[in-house]
Amino acid sequence: MTEGATQTAADSVAGITVLRAPQELDLATADSLAARGCAIAVHAGLLLLDLTSLSFCDARGLSAFVRIANQADRAGCRLALIAPQPPVAKVLRICRLDQRLLVFATTDHALAGLTAVPYRRDGCDLIATLADLRDRWAISDADFQRGKEKILSQPT
User: Fold this and answer.
1) 45 and 59 share one domain
2) Which letter, b or e, does each residue of 103-129 get, where b requires 16 or more Cβ atoms within 10 Å of its Cβ?
3) Torsion of CA 36, 116, 128, 62, to 10 degrees
4) 3-state secondary structure of 45
5) Which distant-in-sequence residues (6+ apart) come within 8 Å of 120 by Cβ?
6) What stretches of 15-147 show up as alpha helix (H) in DSSP?
7) What is the pTM for the complete model shown?
8) Cα gap 104→83, rounded to integer Å
9) pLDDT tens digit sequence for 76-126
């Protein structure tokens, strides 16, 4: 593994940070990504893990995602994974991490999907994504696509 493969880069604008994963996420790189992600989550409002270059992810890499997600939860930071390649997306599905972590095809999709609307459920303040609202109001996907603005204006 080359030195460049262990490096991650982060861009931050207005409380939104994009952290780019290395090409391989394994024993050699996972702890570094987890440390950077956890440190960023403490201060960011939204952390997007860009997986576009990630071609391999083993159990240590999955553990790094969970550690970052746990820190983000504690810090009140929203977290999403962006553009996992098919082999990585498959591992996320098999391990059911795609149900624990939000996964989006692009950064633009993540920013649109994470437009949050607060609502209360079971006495707890939660943040609802548009998909949460679609499920909550049990509308069809076609209606959901045609009426996102109308959905957001409904009382909670």
Assistant:
1) yes
2) bbeebeebeebbeebeeeeeeeeeebb
3) -20
4) coil
5) 126, 156
6) 30-43, 59-75, 86-94, 97-100, 107-113, 130-136, 141-146
7) 0.68
8) 6
9) 999 999 999 999 999 999 999 999 999 999 988 888 887 554 443 444 444
Whole-angstrom distance, CA of residue 59 vs CA of residue 138: 36
Q: Which two tokens stand for residue 51?
A: 């997986």
What is the number of structural domains in the chain?
Answer: 2
DSSP class of 52: T
Domain residues for 144? 116-156
Q: What values do phi and psi take at 68, rounded to 5?
A: -65, -45
Encoded tokens for 54: 């990630």
DSSP three-state, residue 47? strand
Backbone torsions φ then ψ of 106, nearest 5 degrees: -140, 165
Residue 94 shares a structural domain with residue 148:
no
pLDDT at 59 over 50: yes
CA dist 83 and 61 (Å) reads 16
Give the Cα separation of 104 and 123 in Å (integer): 29
